[in-house]
Amino acid sequence: MSNASAEKEPIIFLDDISVTFKTRTGSLLHPNLVHAVNHVTIKLMPGETIGIVGESGCGKSTTANVMCGLQSPTSGKVYFKGQDVTKRTADLRKQMGRVVSVVFQDPATALNPRMIVHDQLLDPLLVHKVGSPKEQEKRINELIGLVGLPKSALRALPGQLSGGQRQRVAIARAMSLNPSAIIADEPTSALDVSVRAQILNLLTDLKKDLGLSMMFISHDIQTVRYISDKIVVMNHGQIMEEGPAKQVFENPQDPYTKMLLGAAPSLLHPKLGQ
Ligand SMILES: Nc1ncnc2c1ncn2[C@@H]1O[C@H](COP(=O)(O)OP(=O)(O)O)[C@@H](O)[C@H]1O
Ligand SMILES: [Mg+2]
Fold this sequence. Notes:
The longest helix is centred in the last third of the chain and has 18 residues, at 193-210. Helix 7 runs parallel beside helix 8. It is built from eleven helices and ten strands. It has helices at 3-7, 60-68, 90-99, 107-110, 117-127, 133-146, 163-175, 193-210, 221-225, 245-250, 255-262, and strands at residues 12-26, 31-44, 49-53, 75-80, 83-84, 100-103, 181-185, 213-218, 230-235, 238-244. It is of the alpha/beta class and 274 residues long. The protein starts with a helix and ends in a 12-residue tail after the last helix. Bound molecules: adenosine-5'-diphosphate (ADP) and magnesium ion. Magnesium ion binds next to helix 2.
C-alpha cells in the first residue's frame, strides 16, 4: 500500500465495539446476557475489501449491523470517514445511507415484492432527492446494466426473477447512491450453488471497477478468499486472527483459523464436497 493511502481516513472505523443482548431466558432482575460482539476493532480503508469469517452465531451479522447503523453498540465508537456516528439522529442515518449500503443474505427480504424493479431502483434516488427525473431514469438504466441484467428486467416484479437475478437487483439498489462502501452479509449463502460464483464475480468486478470498499461476510472461509485483501476471523464475538488474506490462508497462526481452513471444501468447487 502506498504512503498516500496509508494516510487516508478509514471509510468505516469500529473502535472497540461490544454488543450485549439480553435474552428471554433468565429473570427480570437477572437477565441472561449474550455477548454477541466483544471488543472488536476494525478499520476499513478506501478501496479495501475485508472478509469477516467465522461459524454461525459468532457475531458477524451483529458486527455488520453496527457498521451500517442498524444496531447500536453497547460500548465503543463508530466513525464514518472520521465522523462519530455512534449516536444516530434521523438526519445522520440518512447521511450514513449514502456512505455505506448493505446487501443481505436473502434478496427477497431486501426487495418489496409488490414493486417492479424499476421502482425499487428509483426509490433511494427519490428519498435522497438525487437528480432530475431524466437523470434518475438514466441512473436506473446504468444500474441495471452494471449488475449484468437486461433492461427488460426493470419491468419485472421480484417474484418473476430467479434468486440470482434478485440478488443482482438488490446489489443494483445498494449501488444506487454511489456509496463508498458495501457491506455484504452472506450475499451468496441463500443462492443456488450454481449462481454463487457469478454473484461473487459481480461483487469483485464492482469493487475493482468502482474502487469500492467492501466488508464481505461469510461463514465459509473459502468464499471470502479471492475477494478479500484482509481477513478477520471471529469466534464467540471476538477477533481471533486478522491479517492480509495471503498471510491468513498460507500461514494461519490461530488454531481456530486452522480449524476453519481444514473444515469444509470450497463452495466454489462444490463437487469436492459431495
Ligand atoms: N436481537 C438479538 N437478541 C438476542 N440475541 C441475539 C440477537 N441477535 C443476535 N443474537 C445472538 O448474538 C450472537 C451472534 O449472532 P449473529 O451476529 O447473528 O452471528 P452470525 O451472523 O455470525 O451468525 C448469537 O448468539 C445470536 O443468537
Ligand atoms: Mg449472520
